[in-house]
Amino acid sequence: MTSPDDAVSDHAGLAEQVHRELFRLTANLRRQEYDQFSTGELTLTQCSVLYHLTEIRRARVIDLAAREHVTTATMAKAVRRLQELGMVRRQRDLSDYRSSWIEITTKGVQTQQAAVAGLREAMVNELSAEEISALQTALGPLQRLSSGSGHQDLHRVEDAAT
């Protein structure tokens, strides 16, 4: 029978491998997909904003900041950069003139869709059907990990880099 300490030790190695590979994958995706559409590299926060706005179409800076676990000032800077690139636009909030909505533009949607197309092509060209199935199986646990609230140290690193 394995002790709880053995289980923690086994999971520590797995966690390190998952972290390393997800970090490499994320860096590779940023470099390959997003750089071809912008004059400079987009941060992880900016990429995440595009994904989120693709799903919901518009949000306030304060809500985007809360979702990404970064300061409002950091998010405002990220949104300004996306706006300069033509990927988002500001729309005055008619119910609160102190606030504005951030909306994704056609260029922002196209950038996000092109990134997904690039990954889809890489998956088809580089992975077997069994490996793609394994990714599908792993997606649920990865989504639970990515939505967890205990990862704020990771977001602080991104906050400092933005």
Automatic annotation (TrEMBL):
Q: Which SMART domains does UniProt cross-reference here? A: HTH_MARR (SM00347)
Domain named HTH marR-type is located at 15-144
Q: Name one GO molecular function term.
A: DNA-binding transcription factor activity
Q: InterPro entries annotated for this entry? A: HTH-type_Bedaq_tolerance (IPR052526), HTH_MarR-typ (IPR000835), WH-like_DNA-bd_sf (IPR036388), WH_DNA-bd_sf (IPR036390)
What would be one Pfam family of this protein? MarR
Q: What is this protein called?
A: HTH marR-type domain-containing protein
Species for this entry: Mycolicibacterium conceptionense
